[in-house]
Design brief:
Number of helices: 7
Structural class: alpha/beta
Largest sheet: 6 strands, mixed
CATH architecture of the largest domain: 3-Layer(aba) Sandwich
Distance between the termini: 64 Å
Shape: globular
CATH class of the largest domain: Alpha Beta
CATH superfamily of the largest domain: Vaccinia Virus protein VP39
Helix content: 25-40%
Amino acid sequence: MVIERIRDNIREIWRSPSYRRFLRERFFGRFGYDSEQWARIVYCREWREYLDSLPLKSANVLEISPGGRPVIDADRVASYRTVDFPEFDLCRDYLDEKFDVIIAEQVFEHLRHPYRAARNVSKMLADDGIFFIATPFLLRVHGVPYDYTRWTPDGLRGFLEDCGFSSDVHSWGNRKAVKANFTDWREFGWGRDLRNEAKFPVCVWAYARKSPVSDLRSGGSVSCKAEASAEGA
């Protein structure tokens, strides 16, 4: 009986997602295993390289819903704040502060009124600040609590332009990565295919800045205000 109980406890621990993650990150990680999601690996690496080029020691940073995987190390910046959706509803809420960097990774697809949210990002972004945004495209629907929108690279560029931002848009994906994420959030592990097939983007991301032609005082361009009005703002 005691041995059976011990076996059951061991099985329970082994099946625990938190233990398996601990094992992958702390043990397998010593041998080159990367527990980052395959879908995130390319833009996260690119973002961190881009962030390394910025004067982070004097930067005020806001990260929206980072969960357990923040993009930036809080110790590297002058100030670091987080807000969590849906408790902090970006479609309605904004902070009375200005940030040099705002990060919204895999957030905007869950927002019922993305144009309102972009207008609120503009209100919080310093005039020379940069907005990092990443969204899924060829990824399965994942309602947390809801999943509303997908943008192609052209779609994300147009959305940001309508909301008063100029942007540098990128995408990455391939057929293998699309298939792998049908049933699970596959980890990069000891290395997977990072070839980019432009017609199969898994994720789309952008570096966005306030456009000099936008009406910054009112929080967005004429197009964005029209869209927000249509959303019921």
